[in-house]
């Protein structure tokens, strides 16, 4: 046993050393970045932060009532309660902050889920986590009469956690255990079943449907600080957990046997990472509804910039995912004036062509 482990570790190190020689290996194995590569990645991360900052400013300025950036700056620094433009800016702040928080949570959760499952198609929507949270929220409305968005969060946590456990247990059945393909298939099957149960409840209760349909499409409009603040502690804890798993996910990318040989307790690390994913997905889904595609497409975009090192993938996902969500929300505000298209719909319309383009160019890096 010791000899086979040593041989496996030696083989992994040899592959990692030779990774720059072939494009295929470079996509599949995390390698230690050199000084120039680290500087380049840091520069890209700084550029991503700048883009997010510009989109946040645009989110405060653009809408049914367009404002200049100078007016936005005055409203933030020299607020005048009697100025209607200043009041509009302050009314948009919770929406913008929620977009940053939810986008960051979905981006981190999607990247971590792809790393844990070693499946490039893993994301909170495909793996059944969003469906579990949504069904739990519907149950809370129908059975317990929950009406506030703040009250949805506990049901969303329970549903997201239960769905994650069920998917893993189903995928673990059989000789090979929870393989990436089995995880994806189990998540897709469970999502279909949970959404069917949710539909049964909704068609049997008009009152539940009326309360749920605004939340169901996914969006960050109409939320205030009373909705945003209850989710902050859970989002913060989940983000800290996931951001600390970069080295762990790099080890898991080499396979469970190699990860154990490198000293990782695979079951424990997967459980801790899953806890962070559930906290992020449950909070984001409770606050903004089931927004899809962000956690799927952003990690692929990030890998085209950083390579497969999760120590860079995670912080990049934390920044670029809210940029996508804010951009989609801004477009949704102006595309059908005086109405709005919810951000959950716009993320799919904006993200789907980008994802197809990445795949066709061969930039959707494998795991």
TrEMBL record:
Annotated Gene3D superfamilies: ABC transporter involved in vitamin B12 uptake, BtuC
Main location: membrane
Membrane topology summary: Multi-pass membrane protein
Cited Pfam families: FecCD
Listed InterPro entries: ABC_BtuC-like, ABC_transptr_permease_BtuC
Keywords per UniProt: Cell membrane, Membrane, Transmembrane, Transmembrane helix, Transport
Transmembrane regions: 42-73, 93-113, 125-145, 151-171, 183-205, 225-250, 271-298, 310-331, 343-360
Subcellular location field: Cell membrane
PANTHER family: FE(3+) DICITRATE TRANSPORT SYSTEM PERMEASE PROTEIN FECC-RELATED, FERRIC ENTEROBACTIN TRANSPORT SYSTEM PERMEASE PROTEIN
Similarity field: Belongs to the binding-protein-dependent transport system permease family. FecCD subfamily.
Protein name: Iron chelate uptake ABC transporter family permease subunit
Organism of this sequence: Pseudarthrobacter humi
Lineage, broadest ranks: Bacteria, Bacillati, Actinomycetota, Actinomycetes, Micrococcales
């Amino acid at each position: 046993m010791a000899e086979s482990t040593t041989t496996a570790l030696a083989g992994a190190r040899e592959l990692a050393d030779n990774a720059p020689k072939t494009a295929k290996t470079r996509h599949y194995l995390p390698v230690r970045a050199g000084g120039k590569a680290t500087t380049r990645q840091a520069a890209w991360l700084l550029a991503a932060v700048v883009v997010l900052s510009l989109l946040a400013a645009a989110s405060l300025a653009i809408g049914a009532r367009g404002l200049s950036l100078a007016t936005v700056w005055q409203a933030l620094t020299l607020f005048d309660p009697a100025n209607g433009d200043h009041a509009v800016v302050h009314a948009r702040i919770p929406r913008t902050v929620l977009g940053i928080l939810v986008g960051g949570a979905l981006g981190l959760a999607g990247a971590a889920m792809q790393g844990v499952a070693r499946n490039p198609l893993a994301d909170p929507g495909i793996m059944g986590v969003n469906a579990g949270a949504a069904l739990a929220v519907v149950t809370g409305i129908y059975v317990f009469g929950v009406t506030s968005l703040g009250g949805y969060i506990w049901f969303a946590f329970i549903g997201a956690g239960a769905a994650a456990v069920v998917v893993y247990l189903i995928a673990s059945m059989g000789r090979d255990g929870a393989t990436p393909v089995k995880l994806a298939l189990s998540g897709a099957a469970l999502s279909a079943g949970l959404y069917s149960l949710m539909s049964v409840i909704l068609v049997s209760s008009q009152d539940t449907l009326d309360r749920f349909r605004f939340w169901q499409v996914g969006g960050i409009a109409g939320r205030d600080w009373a909705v945003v603040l209850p989710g902050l502690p859970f989002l913060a804890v989940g983000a800290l957990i996931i951001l600390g798993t970069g080295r762990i996910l790099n080890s898991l990318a080499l396979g469970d046997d190699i990860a154990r040989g490198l000293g990782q307790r695979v079951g424990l690390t997967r459980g801790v990472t899953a806890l962070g994913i559930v906290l992020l997905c449950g909070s984001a889904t409770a606050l903004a509804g089931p927004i899809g595609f962000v956690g799927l497409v952003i990690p692929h975009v990030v890998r085209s910039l950083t390579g497969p090192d999760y120590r860079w993938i995670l912080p990049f996902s934390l920044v670029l995912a809210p940029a996508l969500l804010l951009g989609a929300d801004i477009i949704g505000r102006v595309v059908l004036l005086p109405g709005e298209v919810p951000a959950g719909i716009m993320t799919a319309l904006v993200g789907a062509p980008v994802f197809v383009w990445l795949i066709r160019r061969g930039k959707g890096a494998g795991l």
